[in-house]
Amino acid sequence: MLMFLIIFCMAMLISSIGFKKYIWFISIGYGFSVAAIALTVLFVYLGTASAMTIAAAIILAVYGARLGCYLIYRESKSKTYNTKMKKEIKSGKDMKFGVKCCIWVSAAILYACQTCPLLFRAQKPYAPDDAVFIVGTSVSLLGFIIEYVADYQKSRAKRKNPGKFVDTGLYRIVRCPNYFGEVLIWTGIFIGGIMIYSGALEWIAAILGYLGIIYVMFSGARRLEERQNRTYGSDPEYQAYYKKTPILIPLIPLYSVVNWKWLVA
C-alpha cells in the first residue's frame, strides 16, 4: 500500500503540469507520469526484480518518455496542429480551480492503477516469470512498436500532404493504429500480472486501471472521428476509407463510435 501511495504521489507531482494548460493533465503529464512511475519501481526493486520485470519496467519507461517528448515536440513545432487544436480544445483559462483539481487527482489515480500490475509483480521477487507474464510483456513491446511506427508514419504523411487524411502504412489496417498500440501496451501490462494478483484490492486496482485506459482510448478515437468527419466528411475518398477500415481494433468490424455518447473524456 505504501508503494502504491508513492507512485500515486509521483503521478500527482508530474501531472500537476496541467495547471499551466489543463490538457497537459492527460497528455504530457500522462506520458512523463508513466515513465517516472516505471523508473521508480525499477530503482526501488532493481536488486530483487526478475529479468522480465525489469524488461517490462524499461518498456513502460521508454514508452512514457517517448510519448511525453513527442507531445512536447508536436505542440512546439507543428503550427498546423496548434491551429487545429485551438479550435478543438478549450484553453481552460475559465475552468474553475476545483474542476482542475478533480481532473488532476482522477488522472493521477488512473496512472497509478494502470501501472500497478508492474508494481505488484516487482513486490513479489520470488514470483516466477511464468508464461502469462512473458506473453503479456511481449504484447506490451509489440504495442509500443506499433504506436511508434504509427506516429512516425502519420508525421511523415502529414509533412508530404498536410491537407489529406492518412490512409497509408498501418493506417490501411485501422484508422487509429497509435491508439491500438497503446491498447496493446496496457493489455500486456494487465495480463502480465494475472498470475500474481493477490487480494481484492490488487485485482480492483488493476482492473480499474485497465478499464480506465481502454475507455480513454475509445474516447480519443471518438474525438478523432468527429474531427475527421468535420474536416474530410465531404471527400468521397475519405468516405470509402471510413466505411471499410475499422476505427480502433484491426479485423473487428467496428467502423464508428461517434454515436457512443457515453464516450466523453
Rg over C-alpha atoms, rounded to the nearest angstrom: 19 Å
- H/I helix tally: 9
- Fraction of residues in helices? 55-70%
Straight-line N-to-C gap: 28 Å
How many distinct beta strands? 0
Main beta sheet, described? none
- Categorize the overall geometry: globular
Low-confidence stretches: none
The percent range for strand residues is: under 5%
The helix/strand class is: mainly alpha
Order of helices and strands: HHHHHHHHH
Mean pLDDT: 90
Number of separate structural domains? 1
Short description:
The chain has 265 residues and is an all-alpha fold.
How would you sum up this structure, described in words?
The chain is an all-alpha fold and 265 residues long. The chain has one domain (2-244). 69% of the residues lie in helices and 0% in strands. It contains 9 helices and no strands. It has helices at residues 2-15, 28-45, 51-77, 79-88, 97-122, 131-160, 177-192, 200-232, 236-244. α1 (2-15) packs across α5 (97-122) and α3 packs parallel to α6 (131-160). It is globular, with a radius of gyration of 19 Å.
Features:
mainly alpha; 9 helices
Write the layout of secondary structure elements.
Layout: H1 2-15, H2 28-45, H3 51-77, H4 79-88, H5 97-122, H6 131-160, H7 177-192, H8 200-232, H9 236-244
